[in-house]
Amino acid sequence: MKIHDISKLIDENILVYPGDPSVKINKIKNIASDGWNISEFCMSTHTCTHIDTLLHIEDKSPGAENVPLEKCYGECQVLDLMEIPFGESITEKYLKKFVIEKNEIILIKTKNSILNNNEFKNDFVFLSKNGAEYLVKKGIKSVGIDYLSIGPKEVHKILLENEVLIFENLSLKKIRPKNYTFIGLPLKIKAEGAPARVILIEE
Q1: What is the chain's mean pLDDT, rounded?
Q2: Quick check: 109 pLDDT over 90?
Q3: Domain region containing 94
Q4: Within a domain: residue 121?
């Protein structure tokens, strides 16, 4: 068995979505004067590897503290869509090349994985509206992508209103497209999103 950590490291240099606050990590106690080290940090709930919930786009909706944990664990397929050029979207045409089963967790590996993450790329590869509709029709329970956003608001709406949980900003550069067991547990925060530690288990 091999465990792959596909979470991004949270540090003060991590790339964030334009308009979001940068990460701040401050040591507030240290061993020399206090007997232990303690830090405080401040960041958006959509920093690094994280989930989006329906509350992200619709008021009075379930947030991260209400995510069904079965959506955070299960059989997973990593799809290789590195062929899609920057500036283009992941459409139904591309997704139809794969056998996608009901209740699978689908992770999409794209050219986004080769970016250096030093600067935001406006023409990142994203999921299209008809791509999202296709995944909903296939009955998947969660979907993830290798960039800061899976796509525009309408894509979020299609997925989240149909109870497909979204994982964003996954680290898939070194991951071979194949089947894995997925575990991605978000922090239990009363908010519209939450950081998550995500791993793939390869038997």
Answers
A1: 97
A2: yes
A3: 2-8+45-202
A4: yes
Domain count, the chain: 1
Give the distance, in angstroms, between the CA of residue 148 and the centroid of all CA atoms in the same chain.
Answer: 8
Whichever domain contains 80, its CATH number is 3.50.30.50
Render pLDDT for 156-178 as a digit per residue (tens, 0 to 9): 999 999 999 999 999 999 999 99
CA gap 11, 173 in Å, rounded: 19
Residue 36 within a domain: no
> Which contacts (CB < 8 Å, 24+ apart) does range 174-178 have?
174/4, 175/4, 175/6, 175/78, 175/107, 175/109, 175/200, 176/78, 177/78, 177/79, 177/80, 177/109, 178/77, 178/78, 178/202
The string of pLDDT tens digits covering residues 111-125 is 999 998 889 999 999
